[in-house]
Amino acid sequence: MNNIIEARGLTKLYKGGVLAVDNVSFSVREGEIFGFLGPNGAGKSTTIAMLTTLISPTSGTAIVSGIDITKQAYQARLTIGYVSQDLAVEDALTGYENLRLQAGFYHISKKEAAIRIDEVLTMVDLKSRAKDKAETYSGGMRKRLDIACGLIHRPRLLFLDEPTLGLDIQTRREIWKYVNHLREEIKMTIFLTTHYMDEADSLCDRIAIIDRGVIKTLDTPANLKTALSAEIPGATLDDVFLHHTGHGMREDSVDKESAFRSRNQMRRARG
Question: Would you state the CATH architecture of domain 3-79+155-270?
Answer without folding.
Answer: 3-Layer(aba) Sandwich (3.40)
